[in-house]
Design a protein that fits this description.
The chain has 103 residues and is mainly alpha-helical. It is built from one helix and no strands. The radius of gyration is 42 Å and the shape is rod-shaped. Keywords: Membrane, Transmembrane, Transmembrane helix.
Length: 103
C-alpha cells in the first residue's frame, strides 16, 4: 500500500485490488505492444521513403543518360553537317569568283 493511504480491506477487497493490478499490468503490456507496432510502422515508412528516394535517383540518372544521349546525337548531327557546310562555302566561293570574273 502507498504511504498515507489507509484502507481496511477484507479478503475479497484484496482480491479485487489484485485483479485491478493485473488488469492494469495487462493494459501496460498492450500499450507496449502498440508502441512496438507503431515502431515497426515507422521503420516500414522510412524504408518506403528510402525506396522512393532510390527511384527518384534512378529517374535522375536516367534523365542524365538521356541528356548525354541527346548531346551525343547533336554532336553526330554537327559532324554530319560539316561536309554540307563546306560544300555550301565552296559554292559561295565559286559564285563569288564568277561574280568577280564578270566584273
Amino acid at each position: 500500500m502507498c504511504p498515507g493511504v489507509r484502507l481496511f480491506l477484507t479478503g475479497s477487497g484484496i482480491q479485487i485490488i489484485q485483479i485491478i493490478q493485473i488488469l492494469l499490468i495487462l493494459q501496460i503490456i498492450q500499450l507496449l505492444q502498440i508502441i512496438q507496432i507503431l515502431q515497426i510502422i515507422q521503420i516500414l515508412l522510412i524504408l518506403q521513403i528510402i525506396q522512393i528516394l532510390q527511384i527518384i535517383q534512378i529517374i535522375q540518372i536516367l534523365q542524365i543518360i538521356q541528356i548525354i544521349q541527346i548531346l551525343q546525337i547533336i554532336q553526330i548531327i554537327q559532324i554530319l553537317l560539316i561536309p554540307q557546310i563546306i560544300q555550301i562555302l565552296q559554292i559561295i566561293q565559286i559564285l563569288h569568283c564568277s561574280v568577280l570574273e564578270t566584273l
